[in-house]
Amino acid sequence: MKPPIIKNPKGASRFQRYSQRLLTGAFWVGFAMLLRPLLTLFAWYTGAHLFNRAMFERDGWLSILKVPFIYPLVVVAIGGVLIGWAIYNQLRFQNNERRTRHPEPLTSVQLAHFFQVDEEQVRHWQNRRRIVMIHDDRGNPREVESE
């Protein structure tokens, strides 16, 4: 069975489709006109009349036209400041490494002493790809799972 025109808009003629859209739009405009007093009350309560005065009566919309020309200048200025700061830091710190040296790696003896376990157990953990260590309230290893 062929679907009705409502579910198949391609089955309607161009005139029917456009007249339906026009009629729908006209009813939405009529609905908005009915709501106009309520919208006016809401606009008055929220201060939209101040927006109207600033934008239209005092030609505030002209300043909005300047925004697309000002924003690229601001972006270029901020970019220039950041690039200048990076160059300044590079020139200032290029031969001056102030980071602390990394400490020497701990031996398995030191780790075994810290965790209060056997040194052989620490070597076993170090040879594993992944370990999960569960600690008690004092930080001592309670359980160790290794793969």
UniProtKB/TrEMBL annotation:
The chain crosses the membrane at residues 21-45, 69-88. The keyword Transmembrane applies. GO terms for biological process: cell adhesion involved in single-species biofilm formation. Signal peptide: none annotated. The keyword Coiled coil does not apply. Keywords: Membrane, Transmembrane, Transmembrane helix. NCBIfam families: PGA_PgaD. This is Poly-beta-1,6-N-acetyl-D-glucosamine biosynthesis protein PgaD. It comes from Trichloromonas acetexigens. The lineage of its organism: Bacteria, Pseudomonadati, Thermodesulfobacteriota, Desulfuromonadia, Desulfuromonadales.
